[in-house]
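Annex B. Sample input.
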Amino acid sequence: MENIGLLMHGFTLAFSASNLLAALFGAIVGLIVGAMPGLGGITGVSLLLPLTYSMSPTTAIIMLASLYYSTMYGGSFSAILLNIPGDSPAVMTALDGNQLTRKGQPGRALAAANISSFIGGTIGIILLTISGPILARFGLKFGSPELALLIIFAMTSIGWILGDNPVKGLLATGLGLMLATVGVDQAVGLSRFSFGTINLLSGISFIPMVIGIFGFSQVIEMAMLPARNSDEKVQISRKDCYLSKSEMKRILPITLRQGILGTFIGVMPGAGATTSAFLSYIMEKRINKNRDEMGKGCIEGVSAPESSNNAAAAGAFAPLLTLGIPGGSTTAVLLGGLMMWGLRPGPTLFTDNPDFVWPLIASMYLGNIICLLIAFLCIPLLVKAIKVPNAILIPVITAICVMGAYSTSNNMFDVYFMLGAGVVGYLMKVSQIPSAPLLLTFVLAPMLEKYVRQSFDMTRGDISIFFRGGICWFFIIMTILMCTFPVLKSVWDKTKKSNSAAG
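Annex B, continued. Sample output.
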């Protein structure tokens, strides 16, 4: 009850004109930055940070926080409409979102993404309000062994998104693992698979690869298809830009459970919104009753990652504020801003600086509503993108791909790599090789290598560290069940069929 009273006090400060304008400005900039491939939350926060030097700490952090979680909304726009994820958490959104666009239902996809983002973000903010310090202490229980086993569990789940042909899915998985090993080994300082090219010493950039596999491959595919005339009218009414009651009932349970899951993943140091989006999609692919439609264009595939990554963005503030531990690169920049303003995040921040913490949390509620309203107002305008003829759309998407790849490190090598990845992505589509396992393993493999090495460094190579505590055993048991479930299910189905035949 004390937290509720402090939150109400926070709302009185958050409703001041300066703080409201800061939240509105941050939300608008975040939506734009999130929708632009290659930028993302860290770029937006870094660019906006110098503008906050003359502001009060509360107003400044409200603006930056609003920008951070609004990029989660914006990332889905380009992912759904153009098949170009604005940021890495939107990769999973593109799988079903763009398929819905191809079916002439971009409005439904955008509506599902916005509603799920709002509900997931709200759940994360509520849990932060009620039990921020408790969540932060829970996140600290995840050391390197626990995080390594969590990633192993996620990687064993790849089998559920491989598609109809496991061989092709495993091929994509192996390709992702190979690409993830390129660059300098951080442990021993030796280059791996760089082939004498200085541009590969830092590894393969994720954003150019994603833009190529998703975006530029789309350009090649569009160029191969018959041209769409401007006379061909794609009829999309305003009603098509919103979800029906039955569709709301379909996504509501997903947004609730993935919002909770995303919050808990968000408080784990090093996990972040990207990992949360991947795990949520995998989970729904396994348990959802419409799982067979996921990947082919269904709102469940849009709802799960969008709810989860927004909840993770909110959950990341728990360890940041209560322990001073950033969960990722974007929150690390926010931590630098807090220290610049003379604030020391830690257990005493809530008691020593209540006029800073609670207006910030209150502004997150307001900012989430602002993001939802702006996003919904943009839907009718955004869906007009699919009415544009290919003759105009192809050069526009190509330009966006090139700019997105180049903006990653201002290096033309990333542009060339993006173009090559686009060709590979197109060949994968033609060969019906799924791209999701490649991207999933590319993201998770470096993290797995890092946490496994850290674990062995802690015990000088003793493997028993992976069997410590209940969290480790939980993920070990879940991994074993995930690996053996197909066999058990097959035996169960055969037994059930034989029993019914005998009866």
